[in-house]
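Two quick folds needed for the group meeting slides. Do the first one here.
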Amino acid sequence: MLRIATRKSRLALWQAEFVKSQLASAHPGLQIELVAMTTRGDQWLSAPLSEIGGKGLFIKELEAAIADGRADVAVHSMKDVPAELPAGFVLPAIGYRSEVRDVLVSSVRSVAELPRGARVGSSSLRRQAQLLARRPDLVVAPVRGNVNTRLDKLDAGEYDALLLAGTGLQRLGLADRVREFLSLEDSLPAAGQGALGVECSASRADVIELLRPLNDSVVSRCVRAERAVSRHLGADCSLPIAAYATEVAGDLQMRALIASSAGTRVLRCAVSGTDPEALGAQAATELRRKGADEILDELRRSHGVDR
C-alpha cells in the first residue's frame, strides 16, 4: 500500500490522482490511496502568502503526514515547493511539465487592452511585479482561494482581470477562460511552474525506488536549476523571483529575474551550462552583480520575509 498525501483543492486532487494513475501504470498491482488534507495555507485566506509564511504553508502539513507515518509520499506543484527542503526529505520524481506561462483571465483580450486603473487580482508577487513593470497604471490586488474561488470573485465583479498559471486552468478543464497567454518576456514563470513533484522521506529507499519511473530527467534538471536560483539568493519562493530553463542538446539555458514589488526595478540575466546547481549559482551571482541584494532587502522589509 502506498499512501499519497494531498491538499483537498480540486487542482491538488487532480494532480494526486494523476500521479496515482502513473504509479499504477508503472507498478501494476500496487495498492494506492489518497490521504486528503486541508493545510493551514488553505484555511488562511485573509492575507497574502508572503505575509503569513510563504507557499511552504501548503507543504508543511503534508510533510508532517509523511514524517508521522500517515502517508508515504506527497504530490506538489513544484512552483509551491520551497527552494530548501527540510532535512530528511527528498524529491525523487519531478516531471510532467506542461504549460509554463502565466495567463490573463478577463473580459478583454489582452493586458494591453485593460483600461487604466483596472483592478487585477493576483496572489503572486512575481506576477504582480512583472505586470506593474509593463502597466504601472493598473491596480494590482491580492486574491486568495483556489482557482474556482478566484474565478467566482472575478465573475462577481470584484476584479477586472486575474493573472493565473495556465497549467492549472488546463488541468481543471478551464482553458476556455484564458484570454491571453503572457509571453516569457512579459511574465517569466516561477521556478518549477508547470511541473509536478513527488516528495518522500530520504530514509525510504523502497518508496524512492517506486517513484523512480516517474522522474523525467530533462524536466528534473531544468527545475533543479531554476530552484537553485532562489536558494543561492537566500530567498523564499513567494518573492518576485522568476527562472525558466530549457535543455538544448544537453546544455541548460536559463533566464532568471528578480523584481521590486512595484515593478520599478527588474533585473534579468541569461546563463547556460550543464550542471543545474552551478547554473543556479551563476544566475544568482549575475543578479547580485546587478543589484539583487538591494531589492531583496527592500522586499524583506516590506513583506516581512526573513533570510
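Then this one, please, same format:
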Amino acid sequence: MSIRTRYDAIRRRYVDDVVAGAELASRHHLHHVEPAIAQRQVAVVLVTAGVALLGITVAQSGPVPPGLAEATTPEFARLARWGVVNVAGYLVVPWVALRLIGLRVADVGLRRPPPGAWVPYAWLLALSIPFVVLAAGQPAFQAKYPFYGLAPGEGLWPWFVAWWAVYAAQFLGIEFFFRGFLVLGLAPRFGIGAVFVSVVPYVMIHFTKPPLEAAAALVGGTVLGFLALKTGSVWWGVAIHVAIALLMDVLAL
C-alpha cells in the first residue's frame, strides 16, 4: 500500500467518517427532539462549563489547609489541593449537571471503548514522544516540570507517588470535561463543531504552560475530540494523557 493510499484511508476513517457520522447524528437528534429540549441541553452544558472553569480558577487561589501540609509535605499539600479542585470542577460538577438534562456519564464518554479503539491513540502517543523529548531540553520545560518539586534528599516514596495518584485522577477529570461533557454533550446540537467549541477553553487552560505545550494543546485537543466522537469513550484519552505526563516528569527528573 502506497503512502498516499494509506493516508487517504486514515483520513476517511478518522476524519471524513467522523464528520459525516457526527453531522448525521446531529440532524437526527434535531429532527426527533423538541427544539426547547435541545437548546436546554446546550445551555446546561455551556453554562456548567463556564461555572466549573470559573470555580476552579477561584478555588485554586485559596489557602492550603494547614493540617494537610503538616501531615504530608508543603509541596504535596499544595499540589494535592490543586488536583482535588480540578477533579471536583472537571468531574463532579458536570456529573451533577448531567442529571438535569437526563444524560448518564456513559453517554458522555465514561463507557468501555470499542474493540481496537486503542490503535489510533497508540499512534498518537508514538508521534508525540519525539516532540516531548525535544521539548524536555528547553529551559521553560525544565522550569515547569516535574510539577512536584522534590526537596533536597526527598525520595519518590511516599509523597511523589501519592501526588501522581492525584495527578492521574485529574487527567480523568480533564478528558471527561473537554472530550466527554463538552464534545459528546454538545455534538447532538453542533455536530463536528462541538470539537472546536471544546478546543478553545482547552487551549486557554494551557496558557500558563510553556508555549510549545500550549500550541500542542490546540492540535491534541482537536485530535482527541475527533477520536472521542469516533469511539464514544474518553478512557484511551485518559491513558495517553497520563503516559505523556509521566514521560515529561521522567525526562525532567
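Slide caption for protein two: The chain has a mean pLDDT of 90.
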